[in-house]
Amino acid sequence: MILKTKSILGLLILNSMNIAYLEIMTWVGSSVVWYAKHYYGMIRFGDERVDVECKLMKEEVDKLNVDSREDFFLGSKYKVGEMTTRFSDKKKLIKEAIKLFKKDSHGYDALLEGRQGVCDPLKILVGPKDIMKKANLLWELFEERGGWGCPEDEESKVRIITDKWDEIVGKFWERD
After folding, report:
1. Confidence of residue 81 (pLDDT cuts 50, 70, 90)
2. How confident is the model at residue 3 (pLDDT cuts 50, 70, 90)?
3. 21, 22, 40, 56: which has the fewest C-beta neighbours closer than 10 Å?
4. How far apart are CA 25 and CA 156, in angstroms?
5. How far apart are CA 122 and CA 131, in angstroms?
6. Is 113 within 8 Å of 125 (Cβ atoms)?
7. What is the pLDDT of residues 8-39, one digit of tens each?
8. Residues 42, 50: contact at Cβ < 8 Å?
9. What is the pLDDT of residues 60-78, one digit of tens each?
10. What is the mean pLDDT of the chain?
11. Running DSSP on this structure, what letter comes out for residue 87?
């Protein structure tokens, strides 16, 4: 299947049929839930959602049980070997998501970190190496500049970065 891209006002809209997205949720660093310590991940394969899980190791069990002692509902009930969707480390969550995707991609061609429908450059976690290298370099530049929250005098540079990312990724999606 050939994926088509359309550029509207410089924003890339991808036909998401063959693009999976790793969506990461957390309250870490927010003022709403100041004691939050975990990340949660879900891979979206179109309309299907798959939670990212991992087996608990002793060190994680000890930490989770200490963290949850004050939680009336959870108590200290975690056990080694159990599966969990709670990750105290975002990098470990991403690593597990990549393993999960590579094990069963559901026929999808690439895994991007971010939400479906977002028109900003997204980090490509799994995909063709040549495209990943170029696109992820642009994603890093976009992030370093603060994305669309950048100072006004940087907006033109951010637009160039975004347009270039669209061009690189768009070429890939139009290939056979």
Report:
1. very high
2. very low
3. 40
4. 30
5. 12
6. yes
7. 333 333 443 488 999 999 877 666 666 667 88
8. yes
9. 888 777 765 555 555 567 7
10. 80
11. B
Sign of CA dihedral 51, 54, 55, 60: negative
For residue 133, CA distances in Å to 13, 30, 49, 96, 125 come to 21, 32, 27, 21, 10
Q: What pLDDT shows up at residue 76? A: 62
Number of CB atoms found within 10 A of residue 28's CB: 14
Residues 130 and 126: their CA atoms lie apart, in Å, by 11
| H or E segment to which residue 43 belongs | strand 39-45
0.90 exceeded by pTM: no
Question: Which amino acid makes up residue 23?
Answer: E
The Cα–Cα gap between 81 and 58 comes to: 8
Q: How many alpha carbons lie under 13 Å from residue 42 in its C-beta half-sphere?
A: 11
Rounded to whole angstroms, the Cα distance separating 129 from 168 reads 12
Structure tokens at 25: 């949720």
Query: What's the angle, vertex CA 118, arms to CA 46 and CA 115, rounded to 5?
Result: 50
**Residue 1: what residue type?**
M
Token pair, residue 69, equals: 């002692």
